[in-house]
């Protein structure tokens, strides 16, 4: 018997009992109405009517209470089991099963159990695939011979390969799913990696940093740190969401050693070249001495060519020596209190002959108000200004003009600048011109491509900056900024 039949019988019985009660009440009411009130049969008739009505009414009430107590429980119990089963499925408990005995819910129970079994099978197969993919990814990461560390946004270590564990001197069980910040409290190297990661995150740039020197494999090794963001597409493919970071350490020890060997070689060659070049220039001076003998015009022209090229070669060797000092970390500064005007006058004096050769007018802009002094290595900063002024002369048209000046800013910095009105520099090359050996494409003026890079190194060694403002066809302005 199904629920529909049971409900029909119960409701039908209640309706029949109510109809019986109402009918009985009407019949007895008619009888009592037809009976004389003073008749002897009136009293027993009233008692009999009340007895029947009370009996039938009480029986209906008992049946109604019984149905009220039994029916909700009869329907609520299997429904509650179904709800509990759905909650178990929602909580990923795919092993739960329903065993409803009532015929009405048997089909629901069978379908529920079939669904749970399929979900359990799917979950098991998916879990196996995830584990296999995880093991495969771990094998790939461990096969990489460079240290790799993966972090989420809370800086919890998600994965780390054997190379990173070896460099950090840690064990896998000590770091996986642990806070990198907590571990860094007792690990100096990891602390530095996390600190630079946080710094790069604040500056909104994640990229390469200065090489990291580590004692690994029983020798000093150099690693290039690189930080990468882990991003995933946002909702509806709108933008991307940052899910964490990957720290990579590339071993550049071999390249560092080659670079050191290159620096040593250049330094040695440059130093050795200065002696013969100086001898050549001394010999030229003797040839030009009238006491030795007069030279004809052709000989004078050849001697001048030799002198120009010797001076150029001497300047190049000087630049190479300066570059090797910076690269090898042997740049020694001898600061002293210096007036900016002294540096400017030195640069002008050093380039006076070259400026007169091209008929270049050099204008000096110096403020009337008293400005502060500099505590710098005057030789190095004078070299920078001399190089900037020399470049301005070479890239200016004949009969042109150049402005060299100085000003003091409100934040107590002194800025020295050299402005020319030549053809200018394409904005694409404003950063590249400070790289070693870089020359702007199409430049016909001779040079080594080292002057600006060495100048920038000298200025930054003093804690200052060297920048350029330039537009094609409007000239260039190089600004040297130092603390007063």
Automatic annotation (TrEMBL):
GO biological process, one term: regulation of DNA-templated transcription
Claim: DNA damage is one of the keywords in the record: no
Cellular component GO terms, alphabetical: plasma membrane
Domain named HAMP: residues: 73-124
Domain PAS residues, every copy: 133-179
Enzyme Commission code(s) on record: 2.7.13.3
Domain Histidine kinase: 268-484
Entry superkingdom: Bacteria
Pfam families membership: HAMP, HATPase_c, HisKA, PAS
InterPro entries named in the record: HAMP_dom, HATPase_C_sf, HATPase_dom, His_kinase_dom, HisK_dim/P_dom, HisK_dim/P_sf, PAS, PAS-like_dom_sf
Catalytic activity: ATP + protein L-histidine = ADP + protein N-phospho-L-histidine
SMART domains: HAMP, HATPase_c, HisKA, PAS
Sorted UniProt keywords: ATP-binding, Cell membrane, Kinase, Membrane, Nucleotide-binding, Phosphoprotein, Transferase, Transmembrane, Transmembrane helix, Two-component regulatory system
Position of the signal peptide: none
Record GO terms (molecular function): ATP binding; phosphorelay sensor kinase activity
Transmembrane segments: 7-29, 49-71
Subcellular location: Cell membrane
Keyword hit for Nucleotide-binding: yes
Family annotation (PANTHER family): HISTIDINE KINASE 1, TWO-COMPONENT HISTIDINE KINASE
Protein name: histidine kinase
Organism listed in the record: Phocaeicola coprocola
The organism's taxonomic lineage, starting at the top: Bacteria, Pseudomonadati, Bacteroidota, Bacteroidia, Bacteroidales
